[in-house]
Design goal:
The structure holds two protein chains of two kinds. By secondary structure, chain A is of the alpha/beta class. Chain A has 23 helices and twelve strands. Chain A is about 50% helix and about 10% strand. Chain B has helices spanning about 10-15, 15-30, 45-50, 50-65, 80-100, 105-110, 120-125, 145-150, 155-165, 185-190, 190-205, 220-230, 240-245; strands at about 1-5, 30-35, 75, 115-120, 140, 170, 210-215, 235-240. Chain B starts with a strand and ends in an 8-residue tail after the last helix. Classes of the chains: A alpha/beta, B alpha/beta. Bound molecules: iron/sulfur cluster.
């Protein structure tokens, strides 16, 4: 299972069912997410101006998105002035082709990679493999996922679903196929596992002539790219190779260096609960005798300008991929990252993927419903993305269809299939609620037949009563009690007033 | 002060005792309560499931019923329906305007939005009371439902009210701020995840040893209570209004 594109995924409820039943997975996820969420809360509480930083981050991103065309052109000029080359890619296919051509032009067949969501989004590793180029992931968790022929299940900790024993087994079994084998007698202690990964990776860093990265930020003013990380492997990939290719989503641009002040405070605290990232690497074009002598920036759209065209949904582009929303989400905690069928799991994935990919597939149409709308994600988001608002907005698109932008054109979307019965029920309920008399008749019928109501339901209601009993229907609805006891005046007989 | 009780369609149909408790409580505090019989549903289920346009007539109907100058305030014993009116009605008005359908929805909901209060909010902020003279000799743990907690920002209002109840011992619920997994249609559309969340909530509640789990939303209590019943937990779900309405003379069992 090494596909990066997640095609043919079942809809979320079915995918989540398996994870919910896997007690080891649930325990792993619960432990990991609760630890990091508590640490995050402490790291955030240390800053007295957190709310202001959050608001500033939101505004910087909104401003940049509003003038995205201008800042991207400025960025292009700055990067080229500094000796880099800029390429524009409208979709995954184009981006993959650009990167493959650039690698082939160097004559190399191996590349080292800095952990990057954008390259996962476009399935770059698989595309390169098809061209005979092997891409080596160098982030520890990413390495575990790659060696295990697995899919990432978290933005920041892609191997969050694996425990130490599983990691040891993967290293022992797979490392030799990819380069330096695991040391003999490798145990599952964290130091031994880290040392095995270090030795395995060192060989790659020293051999590779091409590095591929994403970026957390791009500064339009100077053409500087920024990568923040914890392990330092990224820095090796960014400095040792002769050619560096960075694939970055167009929404990652910020106007100037001053804007970084905000994000370099909010990102580490939200993601790893650190005050500062252990490694912050910045590079601007190329410099003689220092670092790569060729630098290529591939600016990736892949559904982003379509998303930008949506008034409510565009706020998803503010995301700085901190993963705080995943760590706090009760649904992610139980369903796991794979159930989202996308490189972006959790709450942000539930709003970003159906916008970038459209709501045509079963999995994408089910993602806006993969939330109880509890709002914990919005509360922690360092750029104040109102994820519940976007979820509801996308639900509307799924059940009703409506206008959206796809491939730069305004199109009318049809409702996703399978919602006709629900739509009819909602309409019927709407009509009943518009007439208090109808509601009351229904209540009375329910009360009169209360002895006949089962506590479990057949048909679609089974989803409720498989795990929960139903409440008993009362003898008398409130409005009947009110009328019986107060119906003599006091406004109690105003039925029909507002019709 | 004259107050309109917006009971919500769920309470009216399934939990009339909550409505009777609110009437009893507010009347005891000297408030003149009316129940406009034309009220139905705020439209939350429609809105949250993606049927915003179908929710619009319900928002208008709500505003027609409750917008009347005859009422100083609208009080509801439901955090999520309160949040629907206060947070989402204005947003619906904005969206209708953005879609070129004019101001009429925004204008129609405008009078009712600022005067709608969730019950505990009304007691603490408007009436300025935390001790409502209640008596309830039980150990209680409180689940702050998501919309009450995050959308309305009820904060410690419910627990301040509960702490002032004579005979009541309030015990802290571990993981209190985590969603119980109800989420309206989520409970059915993602039943497995919802049930897992509900089970964890019940286990946490059980660990407190309390006799009663209270909340300000009967729909969450329906989900939690249904789970308790299935798990044969010796704990009862009780709406906070019923606890606050209970007195020494007329104790709730
Ligand atoms: S949506 Fe917000 S909280 Fe979630 S990853 Fe993006 S920035 Fe972080």
């Amino acid at each position: 299972m090494s596909g990066g594109t997640f095609v043919g995924m079942p809809a979320f409820p079915a995918a989540a069912r398996e994870a919910v039943g896997d007690t080891t997975l649930r325990a792993n996820l619960r432990h990991a997410t609760h630890t990091i969420r508590n640490k995050r809360a402490r790291a955030v509480a240390e800053l007295s101006d957190w709310d202001l930083l959050r608001e500033a981050g939101k505004q910087i991103k909104d401003h940049t998105l509003r003038h995205l065309d201008r800042y991207l052109v400025q960025l292009e000029e700055s990067v080229e002035r500094a000796g880099g080359t800029v390429h524009w890619a409208c979709d995954a296919e184009e981006a993959n082709r650009i990167v493959a051509d650039l690698v082939r032009a160097t004559g190399e067949t191996e590349v080292v990679k800095v952990k990057s969501m954008a390259t996962q989004e476009i399935g770059l590793n698989e595309a390169l493999e098809a061209e005979g180029i092997r891409a080596y992931e160098t982030d520890l968790a990413e390495l575990i996922v790659q060696l295990g022929r697995d899919r990432p299940s978290h933005i920041l900790v892609p191997a969050i679903h694996r425990n130490r024993g599983e990691i040891r087994d993967i290293f022992r079994k797979e490392m030799a196929d990819w380069g330096r084998p695991a040391p003999d007698g490798l145990t599952d202690t964290p130091t031994e596992l880290a040392e095995a990964a270090r030795l395995h990776l060192r060989e790659k860093f020293l051999r590779a002539k091409v590095g591929i990265s994403g970026a957390n930020f791009m500064v339009a003013e100077t053409g500087t790219l920024v990568v923040v990380e914890s392990e330092g492997n990224g820095r090796m990939c960014l400095t040792l190779p002769e050619t560096l290719i960075s694939v970055v989503g167009i929404e990652k641009v910020v106007p100037g260096w001053r804007d970084l002040e905000v994000f370099l405070q909010t990102l580490p605290r939200s993601s790893t609960a650190e005050r500062m990232n252990p490694y912050t690497s910045m590079w601007t074009g190329t410099t003689d005798q220092d670092g790569p002598n060729a630098f290529h920036l591939v600016l990736l759209d892949n559904g982003r300008t379509d998303t930008l065209a949506d008034e409510v949904g565009r706020q998803a582009l503010r995301c700085i991929r901190c993963s705080a929303c995943l760590n706090v989400c009760p649904v992610y905690e139980r369903a796991g990252g794979h159930a989202y069928g996308s490189v972006y799991p959790g709450p942000i994935g539930a709003i970003l993927s159906p916008q970038l990919r459209g709501t045509g597939s079963d999995i994408d149409a089910s993602l806006p419903y993969a939330s109880s709308l509890c709002g914990a994600c919005y509360e922690v988001c360092p750029v104040a993305i109102d994820i519940p608002e976007v979820l509801v907005h996308l639900r509307e698109r799924v059940v009703q269809g409506g206008e959206a932008t796809r491939g730069g054109n305004r199109v009318m979307l049809k409702p996703a299939k399978g919602h006709a019965a629900e739509r009819a029920a909602m309409r019927a309920a709407g009509l009943a609620f518009a007439r208090p008399g109808a509601l009351r008749a229904g209540q009375r019928l329910a009360s009169r037949t209360r002895r006949l109501h089962p506590r479990t339901l057949p048909g679609p209601g089974r989803a409720w009563s498989a795990s929960r009993d139903l409440p008993e229907v009362p003898v008398e609805p409130f409005r009947d009690w009110w009328q019986r006891t107060r119906g003599d005046g006091s406004g109690g007989t105003t039925e029909g007033n507002a019709q | 002060m004259r107050v309109a009780l917006f009971l919500t369609c769920v309470n009216d149909t399934l939990y009339p005792e909550t409505g009777r408790a609110v009437v009893k409580l507010l009347t005891r505090l000297g408030v003149d309560v009316d129940f406009p019989m034309a009220q139905t549903c705020c439209g939350q289920a429609h809105y949250n499931t993606g049927y915003r346009h179908q929710a619009e007539p319900l928002a208008r109907h709500f505003s027609d019923v409750f917008g009347s100058d005859a009422y100083d305030a609208v009080v509801t014993p439901s955090g999520s329906c309160g949040a629907m009116v206060r947070e989402l009605y204005p947003r619906m008005g904005e969206r209708a305007r953005a879609e070129g359908r004019g101001d009429s929805l925004a204008r129609s909901v405008a009078p009712v939005v600022p005067k709608t209060y969730e019950l505990t909010e009304f007691l603490v902020d408007v009436l300025g009371v935390t001790d409502v003279g209640a008596y309830y000799p039980h150990t209680v743990t409180y689940h702050p439902t998501c919309h009450g907690l995050r959308a309305l920002g009820l904060a410690d209002r419910p627990s301040r009210l509960l702490r002032a109840v004579k005979g009541l011992e309030l015990v802290e619920l571990p993981g209190a701020e985590e969603c119980c997994g109800f989420g309206g249609t989520f409970a059915v559309k993602n039943a497995d995840v919802s049930a897992a969340m509900g089970t964890d909530k019940v286990r946490n509640a059980e660990s407190t040893g309390a006799e009663v789990l209270s909340a300000a939303d009967n729909s969450c209590l329906m989900h939690i209570g249904g789970t308790m019943s299935r798990l044969r937990t010796a704990m009862r779900p009780v709406h906070i209004a019923e606890i606050l309405a209970s007195t020494e003379e007329e104790a709730l069992s």
